[in-house]
Write a structure and sequence with these properties.
The chain is about 50% helix and about 5% strand. It has about 230 residues and is mostly helical. The chain folds into 2 domains: about 50 residues, no CATH class; about 150 residues, no CATH class. It is elongated and about 110 Å long.
């Protein structure tokens, strides 16, 4: 392209004479959108790619009417389903009777076999399967909750896929967004979540004390071995 003439027959954007056009980047006028530098007197060889269009701002979340429902059955299922896992733990009762049996204590293979049978019992399998079932259901229910929120007019609700990381992330994120469009409502799932977490902690403490108590009660007194 020529450095001194308009290569496409275009002129700097103005009705005034070229001498009055200040130096700068101008569209070549070829339809490609390419910019070329006008020195103030002539076109130069310097070209530039078209200016990128600015990103469109995300639409603002509009406030919901005060009478618009914001809690679906799905969000409560996501919050409360972990209780099912907590309850299943109460039925897990390993048998530690082999700890007080000299037959097993003197036979390492028999001891190991009874230990594995006691720990990995059918109740353990039920707890494991229950945990995976609860995890999968929470993901599905979070997805259903997002669909429901959109029908209520919530713009860009918190994404349900965060439940794959942890249901707490989805519950908190969902509550923050809903609270932003429905103040002062929207934070109830967080408070219920805290209650479920406290209950789960209490159940785990009770379960641990029960298991440890059952195990310690079966360990024979060391003095009985020293006197024999």
């Amino acid at each position: 392209m020529s450095d001194t003439t308009d290569p496409a027959g275009s002129t700097p954007p103005a009705a005034a004479s070229p001498a009055n056009i200040p130096p700068g980047w101008y569209d070549e006028g070829t339809g490609s959108g390419q910019m070329r530098w006008w020195s103030g007197a002539e076109w130069t060889e310097h070209v530039a790619a078209p200016a990128a269009a600015p990103y469109a701002a995300a639409p603002a979340r509009r406030a919901l009417p005060a009478d618009r429902p914001i809690y679906s059955v799905w969000i409560w299922l996501v919050v409360l389903l972990p209780l099912l896992s907590y309850i299943s733990f109460l039925f897990y009762r390993p048998d530690f009777s082999y700890l007080s049996s000299s037959e097993y204590l003197n036979d390492p293979l028999a001891f190991q076999s009874h230990y594995l049978a006691s720990v990995f019992s059918p109740a353990y399998v039920v707890i494991l399967l229950t945990g995976w079932l609860v995890y999968g259901l929470m993901v599905v229910f979070a997805w259903r909750d997002v669909v429901w929120l959109r029908t209520q007019g919530v713009v860009r609700p918190f994404h349900w896929a965060w439940t794959f990381l942890n249901s707490w992330v989805y519950i908190i994120g969902r509550s923050v967004i809903v609270y932003g469009v429905a103040r002062p409502r929207g934070r109830a799932p967080i408070w219920v979540l805290i209650g479920v977490a406290v209950l789960g902690f209490a159940v785990s403490i009770i379960w641990t004390i029960s298991i440890m108590g059952g195990m310690l009660s079966q360990i024979p007194d060391v003095s009985s071995y020293s006197n024999s």
